[in-house]
Amino acid sequence: MITLLKQxxxxxxxxxxxxxxxxxxxxxxIAVLNTLIPAEQQFYAYYYFGGASIIVAIAGSVIAALxxxxxxxxxxxxxxxxxxxxxFEIFISKIVMIIVEYVLVLAxxxxxxxAGRAIFQMMHGTTGTDIDWQTFFFxxxxxxxxxxxxxxxxxxxxxxxxxxxxxxxxxxxxxxxxSVITAITTYLVRFWEPFKWNPFTxxxxxxxxxxxxxxxxxxxxxFGADVWVIWLVYIAYLLVIYALTFMIFQRRSV
Amino acid sequence: xxxxxxRHVSKSFGSYKALDNVSFNVEPGRIVGLIGPNxxxxxxxMRAMTGLMRFDSGxxxxxxxxxxxxxxxxxxxxxxxxxxxxxYPNFTAEDHMKYxxxxxxxxxxxxxxxxxxxxxxxxxGKRKAKHFSLGMKQRLGIAIALVRKPKLVILDxxxxxxxxxxxxxxxxxxxxxxEKGIAFVISSxxxxxxxxxxxxxxxxxxxxxxxxxxxxxxxxEDKAQVKVKTSDNHAMVLAAEAAGWQVKMSExxxxxxxxxxxxxxxxxxxxxxxxxxxxxxxxxxTVNLEDHLMEVLSENSTRA
Lengths: 254, 304
Fold this sequence. Notes:
The structure holds two protein chains of two kinds. Chain A is mainly alpha-helical. Chain A has one domain (2-251). In chain A, 80% of the residues lie in helices and 0% in strands. In chain A, helix 4 runs parallel beside helix 7 and helix 9 (199-206) crosses helix 11 (227-251). Chain A starts with a helix and ends with a helix. By secondary structure, chain B is of the alpha/beta class. Chain B has helices at 42-49, 93-101, 110-116, 134-146, 164-179, 191-197, 215-220, 233-242, 265-274, 289-303; strands at residues 4-13, 16-26, 31-35, 57-62, 65-66, 78-81, 152-156, 183-187, 200-205, 208-214, 224-230, 246-249, 255-258, 279-286. In chain B, the strands form three sheets. Chain B has a six-stranded mixed β-sheet, sandwiched between helices. In chain B, strands 2-1-4-5 form a four-stranded antiparallel β-sheet, with helices on one face. The chains are: A mainly alpha, B alpha/beta. At the A-B interface, helix 1, helix 5 and helix 6 of A face helix 2 of B.
């Protein structure tokens, strides 16, 4: 497994150059926070990394989409699978590396935001630059947890389609259109109430989870179940989608 | 004990039988030529050998372990280049070697292997693989197949895109490695090349193995052929057929005579004299691998 992870890392750095995303995610908040965001809006801008959150989201979708599809595209899937490793080991190493790359890009955006904030404070003073650190880092943690769902969908599509273009497109669409999908699924709930348990609605509503009593109450009211039950359903969806993706990968002759 | 053994392997895609009860062995240090027309099942057989494809029945044993679809430890000692070189466009040749060498606790010396396969020159250097020519990619693919010190190397069309000089170098390298005990299964459309390289021949057609032999045996089956130009080809044909020989007319208007038990120029001249036919030119020779393969394939399709 360690060898597979090292190889995935080598591909991440030399083939896919994920560090370019990390670099962009670092530079963008510094530039945006110090040129476009006035003091009174600084506080809010920190939560979306001065606009770099979209870079993080697109980076996540591209990284996830390419992980499998490029192996099919380059024909490297054959040497990848005709080795001594099990397909499960290969699958897990890829998932781990997607998460590692995503977390590094996210960390880079966080560092860029903090650097941008520090520069802003030096130039314009500290007014409007307070951060509630607990809320800020909890939001980032939730982002990673919720992105696992998004990765699962992109990986499922990329294993079905084997096409980088299809997987990247769907990934990017999903990364910016989750609100649209959620709106549609929420609308459909009106016609059949149990539909509220569909994975998109569960993910969308849980993504707003912040641990507050008010949020717990709202979730409980909507689903008619305790928050832990909703989390359990979310985890079950994740496991099912990843298992389905693995089954497709496992059965594929190349 | 064979290094690789295919036992009654069958694989169908819908109603199409890609492999039909395929069995053959590969011994250590032997170079096996897997020959057949396009769509005969060569690549499918190679995919079955490397654990890339599920097959419907039969088994593949490599280094005393069954090759499974998902995990086979022994595959660490098998190198392959199937259909086209698998290359990461942004890697250099050295990156590829380092990447694939990680799979082995005891890989080949990367720089030595790069030198041997001719991928260490200024053309390679720090250039990314996306800028390589087909021949360069092919050399790199062969180097990748060798980097883990394999016991068996499976090469599908390894000479594709190589210039004559490179073909000669790769041929020498394969022969050198075979002398050291590494076995090869090679498919190629360059039959002259296979004739020079392979120790054994496995002929596959429509998913079935139709002949297995050593190259020497296979070529010794070649009937000597006598080519004669005469004053009366019709009379020569009748005389040759009366002697029980097989006769064909060449496109150049020569009579081509072969026989199961062999035929020589003296016997043909004697028959021509008996038939009062004047011989203007006579040449003897043997059928090469390509001709013989065509003959075997045509016999096979006639029987089918």
